[in-house]
Amino acid sequence: MPDGRESETALNRALWAVMNERFTDAAAEQQWVRPEPVWGLFEVPEHDLGVLGDVRGLDVVELASGTAYFSAWLARAGARTVAVDLSGEQLETARRLQDEHGPVFPLVQGDAEHVPLADGCADLVVSEHGAAAWCDPERWLPEAARLLRPGGRLVFLTNSHLSALCVPADEGVAEEQLLRGQREAYKVRWPGGGVEFHPSHGDWVRLLRRAGFVVEALHELYAPPDGDDHAFYEIVSADWARRWPAEELWVATRH
């Protein structure tokens, strides 16, 4: 990988091994047994957003799947899912939960910037808080387009650009002031480990169009009135996210 990306990817892989040991392994079972999909830190129900539509019979690739709970939800809804993630530790959690709860679907260890799957294998590519933040958009968006058949859809969730501007340089939850410039937020290397990407809205539109997508929708997600802070992700507080969007859910169609 050019431009030092190999070392950044290794850094992210190591971070998610630690995150799985401390947090995501223990939290995964509760997500796997949910009866229907939700989105993001504050678990906004899919039935309130309607971005996925009817997935019965669709070939779906989930990029940066983590413990693959989203793929499990889609498989139960009738999709043929493949979950791809960089972290072997998180995929091992997914295998355990497949054995305990089902359903069983392929789990592939791989980088969303270089996906080991065939061209045109998917009707839907989805990523819930995975590829958009942790992968270079100039690399993973063309990969998503390559995987999709013409007319296929890309649906992905990421942190809001505003939240990225408001998180302190030494990490923690977003504050009520801008703490970094808009261009600075495009790529952030955190002192606690990990490299993230937070393009602006204009950047996302430009990069999606360049990769061959038409933007269909952008949903800005807030915390519900009775929502609590997330148990372990320190990005925004529930109080902050009731006033400003915590996350962005993008929907695009491949030409």
TrEMBL record:
Residues 62-156 form the Methyltransferase type domain. CDD domains: AdoMet_MTases. SUPFAM superfamilies: S-adenosyl-L-methionine-dependent methyltransferases (SSF53335). One of its GO terms (molecular function) is S-adenosylmethionine-dependent methyltransferase activity. Pfam families: Methyltransf_11 (PF08241). Gene3D superfamilies: Vaccinia Virus protein VP39. It comes from the Bacteria. This is Methyltransferase type 11 domain-containing protein. It comes from Cellulomonas xylanilytica.
